[in-house]
Specification:
Elements (H helix, E strand, L loop, with lengths): L1 E7 L2 E6 L5 H44 L1 H20 L6 H6 L1 E4 L4 E3 L2 H14 L2 H4 L1 E4 L5 E8 L18 E7 L2 E10 H5 L5 H23 L16 E4 L12 H10 L2 H4 L3 E4 L1 H7 L11 E2 L9 E2 L2 E5 L13 E4 L4 E14 L8 E14 L5 E5 L3
Parallel strand pairs: 5-15, 9-17, 10-13
Antiparallel strand pairs: 1-2, 3-4, 4-15, 6-7, 8-16, 10-14, 11-12, 12-13, 14-17, 15-16
Helix pairs in contact: 4-7
Protein name: Phage capsid-like C-terminal domain-containing protein
InterPro entries: Phage_capsid, Phage_capsid-like_C
Pfam family, one: Phage_capsid
């Protein structure tokens, strides 16, 4: 007698009463099933390991894919250094391609991106207005902004009364980049010394000269051939000290409190104080009725010194306290706009001082600035 006990692994199994034990058949089937599941799990683990390995390979390839950009940046720095030391005449074609031509007729070359970033970083140390003002880069000789002067006016009327019409009026604010230039004379022997950090030394030298000139212009620039300064801009409201040549003898802090509250809250809460270090030294001595100093020192190294809760920006070019001077300004510096046209352009002149064994390296940048929102500022005049 034969009996079909079912199908395992696709093959029928015949049982004979006298020859096969049913328990043995079940045990073998379970063993086969366990082996099948084990094989599938092993295959899955192998696939997962392969996927992880492929991910690692892809990540490595991605890192290698960034190598050309790094190589290009290194080539740009090397090309700029070779340009300063030997001139374009002794450079390879690959190095010349790495430089960006600024003006073909003048033969000027722009500094590499890394060099320009270092320049701006150092300029901030000399010109702190950049930290707070709105700075943009433009690609045209001039940029214009519309500015609303007057708004439409609403009036109360009766149900059938005549309505009064009104129109907002606008004007244009033009910002023009002006050229700032300098040069340094470097000996030929120094340029030939390849181990000397020429690029770093020139970055410091140019930053000092450009930073000082920019800082002075952003504070007191006339707007003629240079940026318009904050302290000389038109349309900014004035607050007087009430004394002819200084602050009033009693309660001098009340003058600054009045300045703070003369601006709308939205501008005052984003405002900063501008003054030179000498003026700051004078108001540091002021105390309130409880004997607490008005100027509060920062609680951490990165924080700013504050006055009435707002930071103080030390501008070395701000006027001192004197009759008819404007020693202090307060306002939201986003209302002062700085436009950069050319970050840094250099020109190597090996001929002018060739008889003295020197090379003259010219540097220039183009930058402009002006007050776009005079209603966001108020300045203090020393007057009765």
């Amino acid at each position: 007698m034969c009996m079909n006990a079912g199908t395992l692994e696709g093959a029928p199994i015949e049982l004979k009463d006298a020859e096969v034990d049913p328990a043995e058949i079940v045990t073998k089937a379970l063993a086969d099933l366990e082996k099948n599941v084990g094989d599938r799990l092993a295959a899955l683990e192998t696939k997962t390991a392969d996927t992880a390995r492929l991910d690692r390979i892809e990540a490595a390839l991605n890192r290698r894919g960034a190598a050309p950009e790094t190589k290009a940046a290194d080539l740009g720095r090397k090309a700029f250094g070779d340009f300063l030391r030997r001139g374009v005449e002794r450079m390879s074609a690959e190095e010349i391609k790495a430089l960006t031509v600024a003006t073909d007729t003048a033969g000027g070359f722009l500094a590499p991106t890394e060099f320009g970033a270092e320049m701006l970083k150092r300029i901030v140390e000399f010109s702190p207005v950049r930290q707070y003002a709105r700075v943009i880069t433009i690609g045209a000789p001039q940029i214009r902004y519309p500015r609303r002067v007057n708004s439409a006016t609403a009036t109360w009327v009766s149900e059938t009364g005549d309505r009064t019409g009104s129109e907002p009026s606008f004007e244009q604010v033009s910002l023009t980049p002006y050229e700032l230039a300098t040069y340094v004379d470097v000996s030929t022997a120094l340029l030939e010394d390849n181990v000397y950090n020429l690029e770093g030394e020139l970055a410091i030298e140019f930053a000092e000269q450009f930073g000082k000139a920019e800082g002075a212009a952003f504070v007191a620039g006339s707007g003629v051939g240079q940026p318009k300064g904050l302290f000389t801009a038109a349309g900014i409201a004035e607050v007087k000290t009430g004394a002819a040549a200084n602050f009033p003898a009693s309660n001098p802090a009340d003058v600054l409190i009045g300045m703070f509250h003369s601006l709308p809250n939205v501008h005052a809460q984003n405002g900063a104080w501008l003054m030179n270090r000498k003026t700051l030294g004078a108001i540091r001595q002021w105390k309130d009725g409880q004997g607490r100093y008005l100027v509060i020192d920062p609680i951490s190294e990165s924080a700013a010194t504050t006055l009435l809760g707002r930071p103080i920006v030390e501008c070395i070019d701000a006027p001192d306290i004197a009759a008819n001077a404007f020693p202090i300004m307060f306002g939201d510096l986003s209302g002062y706009r700085i436009v950069d046209r050319v970050s840094l352009s250099t020109l190597r002149d090996p001929y002018t001082l060739a008889t003295k064994g020197q090379v003259r390296i010219h540097a220039r940048r183009r930058v402009g600035a002006d007050v776009t929102h005079p209603d966001r500022f108020v300045k203090l005049k020393v007057a009765a």
